[in-house]
Amino acid sequence: MIIGKGKPIPTILKMIENHTKIIVAGCRGCVTVCSAGGEKEVGILSTALALAREKEGKPVEIREVTLERQCDPEYLETIRGFADEYEAIVSIACGAGVQFMAEKYRQIPVYPGIDTNFIGVTERQGVWTERCQACGDCKLHLTGGICPISRCAKSLFNGPCGGSSKGKCEVNPEIDCGWQLIYDRLKELNKLDQLEVIIPINDWSTSRDGGPRKIIREDLML
Amino acid sequence: MRLSYPTNIKIIQVPCTGKVDVLYLLKAFQYGADGVYVAGCMEGDCHFLTGNLRARKRVEYAKKILEEVGIGGERLEMYNLSSAQGPRFVEIATEMTERIKKLGPNPIKAFRAPSVENNKTILISEEKNR
Question: pTM for the full model?
Answer without folding.
Answer: 0.92
